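Ticket #4471: structure output looks truncated?

Reporter: J.K.
Steps to reproduce: submitted the chain below (162 residues) through the standard prediction queue, then opened the result file.
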Amino acid sequence: MAWPIRFLLIIEKIFYGVLFAMGIYVVFALRGEDFFSKFPSVPSGAKDFFTADVEAPPEAKPFAEYESVLKRRDLFDTSFVPVDFNNLQKAAPSADLPANLKVVGIILGATPEVIIEDTTNKQTYFLQKDRTENGISIQDITANEVTLTYQGQIKTIPVKRN
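Returned output as attached by the reporter:
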């Protein structure tokens, strides 16, 4: 016998079993008896799912209690180290660099950056330590000075706060 025929025979037996169970239920329902009262309800020591005491969820606090916590945090801030924008510093043009390059500022934070503007190419570079761009390699960035390598020479440029 092929497998599709066996499968259909099994489905047919399941159908007849369900039909038989529904018939018994209808007989009890027509007699006006509760079908489930014929069976033992709940074993001793167990809780009945439908009649067990359900604990009410705790009452929600008013929004004012959460508002102070929400105001202390920026929910959309994804950085782990807060950046203090008050530490954004500007520097005067340096005589150590060519006239077309000037240190515009420093951003201090988890990964400090130096901002260098190239007036000839009209480009601004945001350089981190150990990065090289357009022949400028940043060696160190502190709050007061930037150490960089330009054309093979190490130059330390002091930063003036505005």
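Triage note (M.O.): checked the attachment and the full token line is present. The chain has a mean pLDDT of 76.
Status: closed, working as intended.
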